[in-house]
Fold this protein.
Amino acid sequence: MPEPVRIVPYDPAWPSLFAEIAARLRQALGDIALRIDHVGSTAVPGLMAKPVIDIQVSVADFEPEDSYRRPLEDLGYAFTPTSPDLTKRYFKGRGPEVHIHVRLAGSWSEQLSLLFRGYLRAHPEEAAGYAEVKTNLAAEYGEDRLGYTEAKGPSIWEILRRAHEWSMATGWRPATPDA
């Protein structure tokens, strides 16, 4: 059943919610998780977002898959083997809605998520502009989540272009892992 794309005001409880979930992930995954980070819009203070906690778990290798898959499934996260993004392994959970993105440590896709978050955290005016784009697209796309996600692409890439310039000018490096 289609769900509407719902963008809500920033909830100051999101970081605490992430911390609770991340503690369980850390306990279940141990050293398999080289990093556990709060990524996505709920990780940027003040940014309007879909009420979904996105968590990036960085691992040394995707194989053996059971090293992270079984612990995540034991915690109630459903593996999505048909994810079109081959740079990650994707898991979903409910109550609250949580998306776990398992990525290779040091990979481009892992670093990209951390750069995007870091740049928006450091540039509230960029975050506000991105919130406006998301709000307008949510109204336009209604229940078409895939259309909404694809329509955000040009704005995300433009933000990432500026984030790249910022990273070179500042010597940006990923922060210490969140958990």
The chain is about 45% helix and 15% strand. The domain at 14-170 is CATH 3.30.460.10 (Beta Polymerase; domain 2). The chain has a mean pLDDT of 95.
